[in-house]
Amino acid sequence: MPPRIAYWTSSFEPDVEAVAGEVACLRRMFPGSVVWGVNARRPPRFSWRRGFGFPPRTQLAFRAVTGCLQRLFDLNHLFGGVGDWFHLRAIRRWPAVLTVAVEGETARPDLLAKIDQFVVEWPQAEAALLNLGVPRDRIRFIPPAVDLERFQPAVAPDSKFTVLFASSPDRADWLDARGMPLLLDVAERRADVRFRLVWRPWGDSLPAVRRSIDERGLQNIDLLVGRFANMAAHYHAAHATFLPFNDPRRCKPAPNSLIEGLACGRPGIMTQHVGLATIVAEAGAGICCEGGVEEIIEAIDRLRADWNTASRCARQLAERRFGVNDFITAYTQIYEALA
Fold this sequence. Notes:
single chain, alpha/beta, Rossmann fold, 2 domains, 8-stranded mixed sheet, 19% strand
């Protein structure tokens, strides 16, 4: 019998949220598992299939309910960060795994002591855990997975060189962290490049972006809003993905759009604040640069000059490092060792 896992997360939209997609992938392989957590951004939900999301004001009820139900499962698996005290405090049954998918504040040492196995999704996160006193043998690097059948390479679009930004924040005060002012500056300088922005239809960031585009009179930006089931089509409509992040605390270090883009043969243009930037750049699957307008423009021109090679390297990297089978195998090994 496969182990029954209690997954703890604040993400419940697998089609548009990277962490929720990872959890959904694992749940398909481990039937009888559940997903629950505290979620401040979405309405409450109580569904075995879609998960049990509790608003913060019901945190005490969440702690009581999960405290009773944990005994029905073999193992707890948290997806989030080392500062997710609202989930860490609720754990009453061991063993427990924590996949560090985001940067942030650190919880109390006694809460982190509940974790038997840490998983990091980008290499630099290991050093941060070591600085917290976590033994190296309790840390493992497992990058997120991408469905290599759903996200397939395609020929380059017959259009201007196009870069895709698909990492929209919910909050307007996070736009700077995601590099939106830098993107607009580059778009203003390079009318010969098209910028394709795929935006999720929630939060308060969209009106601010629209206002900024209108104020600058930018005609080379396409702003597409919605919950798109076929994201592969958006990658195929672009030549590269664009991740101009400048604050890793408000960005996912292993962005879904970067990994899905690689699988589609779309190399990445990214700053050094992207956690996977070094892996991508060393594989020739993209360019990592300083977060300045001139540096980004130079990266665009370099990538455009040898796009076919970078596209081929992007797909090869996705197959080598981000396959679903390797992802499932790695977590299965952890579950079997602990449970």
